Amino acid sequence: MKAIFYIFLLTLFCACSERTPREHSSELPPIFPDYTNVTIPPNIAPLNFGIRGAEYIRVTISYADKTLMELSGDEYIRISAKAWRKMLDTHKGKALTVNVAAWTKEHPDGLQYNSFTIHIAEETIDGHVAYRLIPPGYIGWNKMAIMQRDLSNFDETPIITNNENEGGCLNCHNFCQGNPDRYMLHARNKGGGTVIVKDGKMEKKDISIHAHNATYPNWHPDGRFIAFSVNDVHQSFYSHCVSKIEVFDNFSDLIIYDTKTDRIIEDLRFADTLQMETFPAFSPDGKYLYFCSSPTHILPFDVDSMAYSILRVPFDVKTGRTGTPVDTVYNAHIQGGSASHPRISPDGQYLLFAWAESGTFPIQHPESELMMIDLKTNKLYKPDNINAQGADSYHNWSSNGKWVVFASRRIEGRTTNLFFSYFANGQFCKPFMLPQKDPEQNVQRFFSYNVPEFIKGKVDVDRDAMSAMLQSKK
């Protein structure tokens, strides 16, 4: 009798664990994050996801009618890292089929959704991404950090937190060609400055001119020079506008900093009061310097009239000086809107930038989106798939030019999250959100991911040494 009872329990357990949904839907499952029909690199972390409010979900992943993985969970699934890595390694260039069924209060007998695909690209993504974590406020920076994340797993470690610089602001990190041993960042506190790391040697520099600090940076590919805009940044607040805050510059010029000689190089064409220059970016071959420029206006009153064009000037790597002519790549006064953050693809063909109706801080503009210029044909176009409702802004190319990371407020409009998109033949594939061990972490964390930069490996930083360097003399 006892044996029959055990068999009954086993049969009941199997029946419960092998639920069969009684309803079917032609719609895609409402999973979060939305990983339906995306293209991913073969070295990305597991795409854990869930269905909010579900009591039970069941997922099967297959290829050519062969089941590769069966998963289940209450509300979300967690994928084995080892099994995921093996599956991606053996299916590069192929599209996996994902089937999802969910049991919810609305569908207690289970609802089988339409299947979707996840395409595994042949090309890998750079191993790490660096970003600033900052509260989504306007003036609060009592808790912020520049972090790095291993994209093949869920490991996140700090490069520096503002515990190391007496609670001051940290910003504008930039890596030379994604090199984790050659980078810079600003620490804005009494003992702060610009920290420059080159091949293990760490130095603190005071890079300023006309009583204004160097702000937005970009390394020259050979690693000697850094282009900076020198900005006097301000904020204004509004009560009757869609955008409650506007960030603008009262002053901005360009300089070149020589890390070898500790010298600042100016070009008087880009150091007057008639134009404001910002967001420098070198071409991958190092022969040109791109930047944004707008005529000076009376601010903040004329902030809606601020329209930044993209200009390009030759650069002499022997002298660190800019040459002639000055070419206009994007003319805001003819083509409309305002451009920020120009970034050129590693092959030199495409320029991706953030577009907004006006101004120089697109993350505060809900209408901002990413736009592209084909530098071979000078064609301006809005790339397919990558933009969505909500501000899309700061972006960075992977070293092989096949992936882009960008910051977006498309989820809930207040905080920025990181998204990745595969690039081929001048167009992007549907972006996917930074994978997390807990699918809800990106939104529950309530911090903004700011200024994402691909890096080719982990930054090995002596945080104690950096902290000691940034302490004020009391």
Could you characterize the architecture of this molecule?
It is a single chain. With 474 residues, this protein is mostly beta strands. It folds into two domains: 19-120, Sandwich (Immunoglobulin-like), CATH 2.60.40; 128-469, 6 Propeller (Neuraminidase). The chain has five helices and 34 strands. Strands 1, 2, 3, 4, 5, 6 and 7 form a seven-stranded mixed beta sheet that branches. A hairpin with a 2-residue loop joins strand 31 and strand 32 (427-428). It is globular, with a radius of gyration of 25 Å. The N and C termini lie far apart (82 Å).
Produce the secondary structure layout.
Elements: H1 2-17, E1 23-24, E2 38-40, E3 56-63, E4 66-73, H2 81-89, E5 95-103, E6 111-112, E7 116-120, E8 128-134, E9 145-150, E10 156-161, E11 169-175, E12 182-188, E13 193-198, E14 201-205, E15 208-209, E16 212-219, E17 225-237, E18 245-258, E19 263-265, E20 275-282, E21 288-295, E22 309-316, E23 321-322, E24 327-330, H3 332-335, E25 338-344, E26 350-356, E27 369-374, E28 379-381, E29 392-397, E30 403-408, E31 417-424, E32 427-428, E33 432-433, H4 441-444, E34 448-455, H5 463-469
Parallel strand pairs: 1-6, 2-7
Antiparallel strand pairs: 3-4, 3-5, 5-6, 5-7, 8-9, 8-34, 9-10, 11-12, 12-13, 13-14, 15-16, 16-17, 17-18, 18-19, 20-21, 21-22, 22-23, 22-24, 25-26, 26-27, 27-28, 29-30, 30-31, 31-32, 31-33
